Amino acid sequence: MLLKIVLLLAIIFQVIAAVVSLRLTRKTKYNLSWIFISLGFAALLLRMILEALPFYFDVEPKSYGFLYIWLGVGSAIFFAIGLILIRSIFTYMEKIEKEKRANEKRFLSILIQAEDNERKRLAKDLHDGLGPLLSTIKMSLSALKKPNTKEQEKIILDNLDKVVVESMKSIKEISDNLNPHVLDNFGLDKAINNFIQKITTTGDIKIKYTSNLNDLRIEVSKETVLYRVICELINNTIKHANANKININLYYDIHNISLTYKDNGRGFELDNLFKPQEKGTGIYNIYNRINSLKGFVNIDSKINNGTIVKIKIPFSNDIK
What we know:
single chain; 5 strands; Heat Shock Protein 90; 9 helices; alpha+beta
């Protein structure tokens, strides 16, 4: 009785091993060595079933003796060939690991470069935008210290008031570039609409935006990333694509937030996307930002056929 139980357990474990082996075949990209190993497990399973049959049924082992022997020979050969060829699996895994490390280094380098560019842009905005205005205020205050007629003082004060107002506008623009107040106060949907209105005022480009977010507030990190990604995509289209139409669809369900972005611009060669380059790091920024949210990005572009970008990130909303 004990032997029957042990044999049954052995068969069950062998079935599990064979199933796991077959499932791993797909993950190894149907590598030849793993196919032979899977065949070895299958042959071993059949051999074990034949070995257990006389203990459960009135079967004479001699009736399938040759099959039993050939299954044993087959399993041994399959395992031997699989183990001899298994080096290719490790070579493939090493290759994937090297590519992964190389991609991580490249993305880290691009991220550092993007942050450096952002700091340079902020410094330029402060220097070119706010700097001259503050210098003008200082000159006006110095002029007020000198003897002036009431008419001259009025002119200086009026000019000073205008410069102060202009300085406040400049500070607001810099602040909005860093962290748009519309996004903080009203959410992603209204922030995107607000940005699109600013872009389309010239009439040079038409942007169609549809979404089911409405007033829904999602996690701050996801709102910020999606807003920055959409702004980056629009800026890329305006600067490089020579397009006049953009379609943006942003939808959520219980599982994901999906963004589809499409323009009718000049497009680009996807083969050149990940080649080392000094400029055009916007796509890298998008990959990094979406990757930080455990999402995925798919880009489809062809020369003179526009660009389609599909993005999907997990949706979980802890906002009360």
